[in-house]
Amino acid sequence: MMGTMEGSPRSGLSSPEAKLGMRVEDLWDIMEPQLSPTEKLNACFESIPVSAFPPAPSNQAIEIKSDASLGEAVQILAQHKILSAPVVDVDAPEDASWIDRYIGIVEFAGIVFWLLCQSEPPSPRSPSSATALAAATNGVNAEFEFLGAESAASTNGNFFEALTSSDFYKNTKVRDISGSFRWAPFLALQTSNSFLTMLLLLSKYKMKSVPVVDLGEGKIENIITQSAVIHMLAECAGLQWFESWGTKRLSELGLPVMTPNHLIKVHEDEPVLQAFKLMRKKRIGGIPVIEKGSSRAVGNISLRDVQFLLTAPEIYHDYRSITAKNFLTAVRSYLEKNHENCPLVTGMVTCKRDHTMKELIQLLDSEKIHRIYVVDNDGNLEGVITLRDIISKLVHEPRGYFGDFFDGVLPLPQNSRV
Predict the structure, then answer these.
(1) CATH of segment(s) 260-392
(2) What is the pLDDT of residues 172-185, one digit of tens each?
(3) Percent helix, strand and coil across the chain, each to the nearest 5
(4) How far apart are alpha carbons 106 and 183 in whole angstroms?
(5) For 193-248, how does the pLDDT look when each residue is reduced to its tens digit (9 = 90+)?
(6) pTM as predicted
(7) What's the pLDDT at 10?
(8) Burial environment of residue 44 by CB neighbours within 10 A (0 to 12, 13 to 18, 19 or more)
(9) What does each C-alpha distance from 271 to 147, 155, 229, 316, 369 come to in angstroms?
(10) How confident is the model at residue 389 (pLDDT cuts 50, 70, 90)?
């Protein structure tokens, strides 16, 4: 289903995002005429500091304490409907710099993958890990060997109920799994960095969110997500700089980037854990579930859906195996009972190659989703377009732009498993 929205300026362009769009418009109007539209946009975004970006909603400006349990962290993320949050070191001194104040960013996916990784055969250097896990999980470990397809197929709701009620899950602290964090502590922007830097990090450099730190306070000032950028773009419909780009058809802009034969997917009769395993391996945020014997997608499983394995394990109780199809069915039923909606789980959101970028942005923003599937006239999958793909078509990285920007960014810890 593809919604169509007319592109007229929003209610007097009064939202903070629209006012930001007007700031780009003012810069656009005075740019050198010989510059191409792409060069003009790059120059506009380079001229605006990231401090001008509207603050994240208060429900998303969440921090998790390092002594919180895995169970508590999962509940906080689920309650606030966010995928990740910075972890504050409770032992850091009051006047600590931001790099000492935070130990990283914890994600739903990081928690689950860390749990799954504990089931892998122990290395010679840590022979006691499997034994410790078995003891801590009160026998749950017998079913923990499910990274292979065969055992994954037999994993049922009872397993997740046992896991989430185990002392291991309740007592392991967030700081104990810091090896699964993506950054240690994380890559952040200063308030004086430019919009262009932020947009490139969210697109070319594959960051889903970018923390903005106040060096004076030593705290996170804002967290800018890919979704927040797409919302800003949606609010700019009707402005000249946006229309010159947004009215182009997807095919004109080279979208979708990924062709059907390269699309990562899972079939409905495969174990749902295979979907999460693929997302981890390929470092992608979502996977379409394909109908048996066809090329049609019947649903989508994303990293966000990992929460349903940990926050509502009872919904799989009646399934002998949690296949991708059973997972979708159980989650849909759960959402209906709780009067919640999740477009890509409850029904596929699709588009065609001849839709415009503006239509796509407005649909993604209104549905609050991170990807949309491109289909042909028969409903067969032709590709996927993500928020990152869209942002990457808005700007380009000038030669040598980042210079030594990444110097001093702490690498992933040696024991990182994600």
Answers:
(1) 3.10.580.10
(2) 999 998 776 665 55
(3) 45, 15, 40
(4) 9
(5) 999 999 999 999 888 889 999 887 778 899 999 999 999 999 999 999 999 999 99
(6) 0.84
(7) 44
(8) buried
(9) 10, 8, 34, 13, 24
(10) very high
**Token pair for residue 417?**
């498993």
Residue of higher predicted confidence among 17 and 182: 17
Query: Cα–chain-centroid distance for residue 28?
Result: 31
Contact partners, residue 86, CB within 8 Å, separation at least 6: 63, 64, 102, 104, 105, 185, 186, 211, 220, 223
C-alpha 338: how far from its chain's center? 23
Reported as a single tens digit per residue, the pLDDT across 302-349 is 888 888 888 888 888 777 788 999 999 988 888 888 877 766 565 678
The Cα 163–Cα 38 span in angstroms is 51
Are the C-beta atoms of 66 and 58 separated by less than 8 Å?
no
- CA 197, 223, 225, 45 torsion: positive or negative? negative
In sequence order, the β-bridge partners of residue 286 are: 302
> Distance between CA atoms of 278 and 289, rounded to whole angstroms?
12
Each domain of the chain, given as residue ranges in start order, spans 260-392
**Preceding amide of 256 cis, omega within 30:** yes
Please state, in angstroms and rounded to a whole number, the distance separating the CA atoms of residues 85 and 409. 19
Cα separation, 34 vs 91, in Å, equals: 55
- 346's enclosing H/E stretch is helix 343-346
Element at 371 (helix H, strand E):
strand 371-375
- End-to-end Cα, the chain, rounded Å: 34
